[in-house]
Design brief:
This protein is an alpha+beta fold. The chain has 2 helices and 4 strands. The longest helix has 11 residues. The chain starts with a strand and ends in a 10-residue tail after the last strand.
């Protein structure tokens, strides 16, 4: 599962932060995820930060709690396991 939210960024104003929950035993690489997103999406839609988390904040009916997700993402910005992938994001000529 993946959920994304905006977090403050000193260069872009807001940056995409992705919280990723992997299945048991599945290894994922943040840079590979960003590269895949850059191939499929506009560069500004690809995540600039990726954190692998145990669970996403959801309600009892399994709906995403967006306010709690945003708070979680901001708190994870300074976490050492959060991967900064902003350097991979470059605007290309159309």
């Amino acid at each position: 599962s993946v959920a994304v939210t905006a977090v403050p960024d000193e260069i872009r104003g807001d940056e995409v932060f992705a919280c990723v929950v992997t299945k048991d035993g599945v290894q994922a690489d943040a840079k590979d995820i960003t590269q895949w997103c850059l191939e499929k999406l506009a560069y500004y839609k690809a995540p600039g930060f990726i954190a692998f988390v145990e669970t996403l904040p959801v309600t009892s009916t399994q709906k995403l709690q967006r306010a709690r997700l945003k708070t979680l993402a901001v708190s994870l910005l300074s976490h050492p396991d959060t991967v900064d992938t902003r350097a991979l994001k470059k605007r290309s000529a159309a």
